[in-house]
Amino acid sequence: MHSKAADYSAGPAVSFPEMAADIETFPNRHPGREYTITHTCPEFTAVCPKTGQPDFGTIRITYVPDRACVELKSLKLYLQGFRDRGIYYEHVTNVILDDLVAAVRPLRMTVEGDFHVRGGISTVVSATHEKAGGGGAGGRARARTKAGRR
Fold this sequence. Notes:
Elements: H1 17-20, E1 25-27, E2 37-47, E3 54-64, E4 68-70, H2 72-80, H3 89-104, E5 108-118, E6 121-130, E7 141-148
């Protein structure tokens, strides 16, 4: 008896450019100093594209700004825009990173999605960007996924 593995691939990459355009920034008043900003959204919600059920989690954004900082109201509205979007944990974490990097152009940024337990498994996805010439990833985003039971 043969078993065929289910295909849960997300299919083609999905982006939401209309949402990214709404991320506002303001000038960094201390561009010569490296300092860290952390924003936490403990009530992030999206929709599982497989089941249609809501997914809940905490999105944590940590970055070292260069010339711009993200404006918080626009960040809140941007993140709320995922409430009715069918998107996997891994993809949404990377989409948020890509959109924020495009808007803010930070020296370094990490987006971590810490998603609630579903079916006995919790998932944490962390994606990181470093500006070219700043060492590390050389401007490429790196993603790491950890899943475990709680």
